[in-house]
Amino acid sequence: MPKVIDHDQRRREIVEVAKRLIAAGGFEAATMRSIVTAAGFANGALKHYFANKDGIIAATFESVLRETDTRVSTLDPSASPADALRGFVEAAMPLDEHRITSARVLLVLWEHSVANPDLARQYRELLTAWRAELTRRIAAACTQGRTPESPTVGTLADEIISVTIGANVASLMHPVGDLIDRYSDYVDSVLTRIAA
């Protein structure tokens, strides 16, 4: 009887290999040949799962974005508005080795997305959704009765997004974990300002 292959699992395995290669050596390290070799597949086997490298890169990009969504989806739905906001912000900050590695992959793929309209669109949609959710959570955590449409709330959301992106970039220039305390302090500080 022929072996049953879980094609979705194989695609996930290929994406994980691509992530590891990109994290270790940048975009150029994830060639079709290096992915096949690292995954332990025969030459040409990738064609059954992805038409080309762009397909693997798109799936890798989506996978990294989904990781943040997964962290957010596991937050306690009964948490206070301030704790819900904290969890949402912390989900995107480089506060552990896994998130720092994900940031490395995402930053490499951002550069590639400039020349890839589909990836650029995905990232714009992510930022738009992220900002909308942040404004909702900030307004809920404010003790001053602000709405998500308030300019102050929008400014805070833009600050958090900018700091988070900057923190992810800076975390790549330091030994893993060196900046975690600094970024945890930032989250505490911004939440104190929102609650004041």
From TrEMBL:
| PROSITE patterns membership | HTH_TETR_2 (PS50977)
What is the top-level taxon of the source organism?
Bacteria
Q: Which Gene3D superfamilies match?
A: Tetracycline Repressor, domain 2
Record key words, sorted: DNA-binding, Repressor, Transcription, Transcription regulation
| Gene Ontology MF annotations | DNA-binding transcription factor activity; transcription cis-regulatory region binding
User: Which PANTHER family would you find in this protein's record?
Assistant: HTH-TYPE TRANSCRIPTIONAL REGULATOR BETI, HTH-TYPE TRANSCRIPTIONAL REGULATOR RUTR
**Stated name of the protein:** Transcriptional regulator, TetR family
